[in-house]
Amino acid sequence: MHYQRALFSALVLGAITSISVFGQKSAIIAGHLIDPASGTVTANQIILVEHNPNNGSSEILAIGSDIDIPGDAEVIDLSDQWVLPGLVDAHDHLGITYKEDPESWYYYFTVIMDSTPLRAIQSMSTGFQKLASGFTIVRDLGNNGLYADTALRQAIEMGWVPGPTMINSGIIIGAFGGQFHEIPEREDTVYPEYMNADTDDEIVKAIRRNIHYGAKVIKVCVDCQAYPYTEEQLKLFVREAANAGQKVSGHVQTREGARRAIEAGLWSIDHDGALDPELHKMMAERGIFRAGTETPQADWGRRLSDRRWERRKAMLKDAYDQGVLLVYSTDADYYIKGMNRGELSIEFIKTWEEAGIPAPDILKAMTTNGYLISETENERGPIKVGFAADIISTADNPLDDINALRDIRFVMKDGKVFKRDGVVASLGFFHNGPEFGWRVR
Asked: CA 250, CA 281: separation in Å to the nearest integer?
C-alpha cells in the first residue's frame, strides 16, 4: 500500500512538473515590428511566445525571420499590421469614477459615497478598458479607497481578472488635510483617500504602512496645503522609500513645491502646471521624470483657458527640447460621454501633437520611458527574448502618425490574447453606460 501511494505521488508530481515545464506557445507573425526605443522597424518577423497557464507568466522565446514554429503553437497572423510593445500610462487613478451626474462633483461623490469594494470593482472595469486600448502598464497613483489598488493588482497577478501590470501607490501621503479642505466636524473625511503625515515619525510610518499593504511606489502631496513639505522632509520620503527599494512620485501644485521636490531627488514630478524652463533644466540634469498629465484642449467639458492651453503646450515642448525624461501620463479620472476610459486616455496624444512633439518621440514616451519610470525595463515592456510577452498591434504605422494608436487591433498580455481583430476576446459581456464601461471597440 505504501509503495502504491509512493508510486501514485511520483506520477502526480511528474504530471505537475510536465504541465509546469510545457506551456502554451504562440507564434506571432509580425509584418512590421517596431522598436520604439530606436524608432526603427523590422519587416517580417516571427515572435515565439510561451505562456505558463499555471502561474500566468510568459516569456518571449525567440524573435527572427527564420524561426521554426513548433507544431503545437497557435499561429497569430499579424503580417499586415504594425506590432509593438504595450503602452504605459504613468499617472492615472483607476478607482475614480464613471459618474456622469453631477460631473462637477464626481471626485467628492466617489471618495465619500462609494465603498472600497465597489471601487475595487470599478478599478477592474477601468483597467479592462485601459488594456483594451493597449495600455499594458499603469502607474495607479492613489485615490482608491482602502487599498482597492492593491486588491486589483493582486487579482491581475493571480490571473483572476484581465488588466494591465499595476504600479500602485496605496494611499496618498500628505500634510494635514491631503488635497481636501475640511471642516472641524468632519475632519476624518480625508481618510482613506489621504494619510495625514506631518512629523518625521508620521512620514516614516505612513510610508511603511503603504508598503506593508502592497504599494509599489510612494505618492506624496508635496504642496497641497498652505504648509508644504520642506526639502528635508521630502528627502526623508526618498530615503525611507529607498530603504524598501521604492521610489517617490510627487504631486506638485506650486513652483516652490516643485523646486523642493527636484532638489530632494523625487523619482517623478507629477502635473505640469507649476513647471517652467528653469525647473525643466534642473530635472534634465538630475534625470527626474516629468509626468505632466497634459489634459488636451477639448470640446467635452474640460476646456482650458486659451492662456493655460498655450502655456501647457509651450512647457511640454520646452521640456522636450531640454531633454527632460517625458512619460505619457493622463490623470484621466473622469467621465466623458461617448468614451470609455481607454479611449479617453488615448485622447491625450492631442496635447503632444499640438506641442510639436514628433510621433516617434511621443511613442517613446508612451513605451520606453514608461517602462523606465515603472522600473519594469529589465523584464517587461520591450519585445525582447526572455521578457514577458506584452504585445499590441495597429493597422497603420504610429511612427508616421501617432493617431494609429486610436485603433488597437491586437493585445497580448502576459502571453494571453486579450484582443484580436479589434475585438476583446477574454470576456463576452459589454455595456455602453458610464457605470461599468464595457464598451470596447
From this structure: 18
Alpha carbons 268 and 251: distance in angstroms, whole number: 9
Kindly list the distances between the CA atom of residue 330 and the CA atoms of 26, 345, 439, in Å, as whole numbers in the listed order.
Answer: 33, 6, 20
| pLDDT tens, position by position, 73-100 | 999 999 999 999 999 999 999 998 766 6
- For 136-165, the pLDDT digits (tens) are 999 999 999 999 999 999 999 999 999 999
**What phi-psi label fits residue 178: left (phi over 0), alpha (psi between -120 and 50 degrees) or beta?**
left
The CA distance from 321 to 282, in Å, is: 13
| Cβ 337 vs Cβ 376: under 8 Å | no
Task: Output the DSSP codes for 21-53.
Answer: HS-EEEEEEEEEEEETTTTEEEEEEEEEEEE-T
DSSP state of 144: -
The SS3 call for residue 219 is strand
Look up the CATH superfamily of 2-85+385-424: Urease, subunit C, domain 1 (2.30.40.10)
User: Which three cell numbers mark 372?
Assistant: 523606465
Q: Please tell me whether the overall predicted TM-score, pTM, comes out greater than 0.85 for this model.
A: yes
Distance CA 240, CA 334 (A): 33
Q: Which distant-in-sequence residues (6+ apart) come within 8 Å of 138 by Cβ?
A: 88, 89, 92, 94, 127, 130, 164, 165, 166, 167
87-374: CATH topology:
TIM Barrel (3.20.20)
Residue with cell 496635447: 351
User: Residue ranges per domain, the chain?
Assistant: 2-85+385-424, 87-374
Name the burial class of residue 435, with classes exposed (0-12), middle (13-18) and buried (19+) by CB atoms within 10 angstroms of its CB: middle
